[in-house]
Amino acid sequence: MITFVTTNPGKFREVSAALAPLGVRLRRLDRAYPEIQADRLRDVVTVAAGIVARQVPGEFLIDDSGLFVDALGGFPGVYSSYVYRTIGPAGIVTLMNKEARRGARFETVFLLGRRGRPPRIFRGVCEGSIARTPRGRGGFGFDPIFVPRGSRRTFGEMSVEEKNAVSHRARAAEALARHLGRRLR
Ligand code: IMP
């Protein structure tokens, strides 16, 4: 059993659904940890892992994700949480108002850790674009403004299963599951 340390029930729902068919079970620990200001998601999770490892017995998982918008030079990226709380998805749409270039990507970095062991990092990316207006009530965070490549709907208009078929987080979960599978052999 792996402890997924997250205050976000949406992340837990997605990762549990992605991993259950692969035989990986998770429990959720609803606890916040400090996130440093850094340019890369992997640096944020690596520092956080050192703190979480001292608090959580056994194996744990943490997820740091961000939305990187091409026309905004990759903003909000590692500042996605702050931007969500301040201007929110509607604010990003306003910033992109006159912008023809709509490209963006979501990225998830997972860290699998255990006290006294070197951490393992897994990444998942989903390319897509920023919608002209927020759409849909599903998902969480910036889901209503992100349209994954190959779809016309936003993540906010999708079920967990539909989002998991293409999402950054589901891809990171697949990489984690491959690692766990190798470990069993
Ligand atoms: P965090 O720091 O990984 O918790 O996420 C940064 C911000 O991005 C938060 O406001 C989340 O709500 C948002 N976010 C993270 N993952 C996703 C996603 O899969 N869809 C939409 N928003 C997300």
Give structural notes.
The chain is an alpha/beta fold and 185 residues long. It has one domain: Maf protein (Alpha-Beta Complex), CATH 3.90.950. Helix content is 34%, strand content 23%. A 6-stranded mixed sheet has the order 2-1-3-4-5-6. Helix 1 packs across helix 6. The radius of gyration is 16 Å and the shape is globular. The site of inosinic acid has 16 residues, from strand 3 and helix 3.
Radius of gyration: 16 Å
In CATH, the architecture is Alpha-Beta Complex
Helix content class: 25-40%
Report the portion of residues in β strands.
Answer: 15-25%
Biggest sheet record? 6 strands, mixed
Number of helices in the DSSP assignment: 6
Distance between the termini: 17 Å
Rounded mean pLDDT is: 96
Bulk shape? globular
Reading side by side through the largest sheet, how are the strands ordered?
2-1-3-4-5-6
Number of strands: 6
CATH class group: Alpha Beta
CATH topology: Maf protein
List segments where confidence is low: pLDDT < 50 over at least 5 consecutive residues. Answer: none
Briefly note the structural class of the backbone: alpha/beta
Bound molecules: inosinic acid
Oligomer: single chain
- Along the chain, the helix and strand elements come as EHEHEHHEEEHH
